[in-house]
Specification:
eight-stranded parallel beta barrel, TIM Barrel
Length: 333
């Protein structure tokens, strides 16, 4: 495992982050989830990503139990706030009230006294931006949070927030958590350039495109039983955009490139996002330890310019690149 600095901060993260978005508390039973976390740590993954909303708050609880007993200084803990965690009118969004209540609840579930990276899970159109930024700055000053970031913000939103942080002397963002893969490149034209210039590193999610880039889905054939594409509670809706014959055919055509590099298709996909030097880490999920053991092999892989060109040629116009696709909903919609 290799490690990179998170943006312009002094904190290092592992090139591979273990995330429990769909798995812990839903797809994977607690004992199996704990085995996955321990396997990840044993393989050099020190960065763990979750969110208060995952599995209705259960994912944080499982992760807290899995990390219990491990020296706190030896790993980086990431979580997020924004989506509903209850039925009350203030159980969502980025108001000071919800942020302060949510961070305390997350700390309790995670069984820790601080969060290494706390992130706005989306942009909140209803709360004054300064209110949200002020609350995050207070959390750093209180020692409950070490660094702050955001997920799925567009370039204008990032720029507006940075102006306030500079004007008010608030602690600045050091991370962005966008979706990014060979097939989903919407950050490349606007978000990533802003982040590069401002010292904001990318911790990207879904580098394997919800599993579409693993090659296990074949054109003209039904998805394998038990796969994510068949699990309506575990991401079938997300992966459906890639369940098209032209996409699946192109993925199969990437296999000779992966073979030439001595990689599986999944490893090639993770290695591809890590070629972007502003990507600090790529988040992987897993329902069993063997998946982690395979995907960590993408760390440290260097792909040549010719290999990257070959990948682009195979995929052609299939990757989504429209920056307007980075969108946050109204939290109470």
């Amino acid at each position: 495992m290799e490690y990179r600095r998170l943006g312009s901060s002094g904190m290092y993260v592992s090139e591979i982050t273990y995330g429990n978005w769909i798995t812990h508390g839903s797809q994977v039973e607690q004992d199996a989830a704990i085995k996955c976390v321990r396997t990840a740590f044993d393989l050099g993954i020190t960065t763990f990503d979750t969110a208060d909303v995952y599995a209705g708050t259960r994912a944080e609880t499982v992760l807290g139990k899995a990390l219990k007993g491990i020296r706190r200084e030896s790993y980086e803990l990431l979580t997020k706030v924004y989506w509903p965690t209850g039925t009350g009118k203030n159980d969502r969004g980025l108001s000071r009230k919800h942020i302060m209540e949510s961070v305390n609840a997350s700390l309790k579930r995670l069984q820790t006294d601080h969060i290494d990276l706390y992130q706005f899970h989306r942009f909140d159109y209803e709360t004054p931006l300064e209110e949200s930024l002020s609350a995050f700055d207070d959390l750093i000053r209180q020692g409950k949070v070490m660094y702050i970031g955001f997920s799925e913000w567009n370039a204008d939103q990032i720029t507006s927030a940075l102006k306030i942080q500079v004007a008010k002397g608030y602690n600045r963002f050091v991370s962005s958590q966008p979706q990014y893969s060979m097939l989903w490149r919407v950050i490349e034209s606007k978000v990533d350039p802003v982040c590069r210039s401002e010292g904001i590193g990318q911790i990207v999610w879904s580098p394997i495109a919800q599993g579409a880039l693993t090659g296990k889905y074949l054109p003209g054939k039904k998805p394998p039983t038990g796969s994510r594409a068949t699990d309506k509670k575990g991401g079938a809706n997300m992966i459906s955009r890639w369940m098209k014959d032209d996409v699946l055919t192109a993925v199969q055509n990437l296999k000779p490139i992966a073979d030439q590099e001595g990689l599986t298709l999944a490893q090639l996909a993770v290695a591809w996002v890590l070629q972007n030097q502003n990507v600090s880490s790529a988040i992987i999920g897993a329902s069993k330890p063997s998946q982690i053991k395979e995907n960590v092999k993408a760390s440290g892989v260097k792909l040549s310019a010719d290999t990257l060109k070959s990948i682009d040629k195979v995929l052609g116009n299939l990757p989504e690149k429209d920056p307007a696709k980075t969108v946050s909903p109204q939290p109470r919609a």
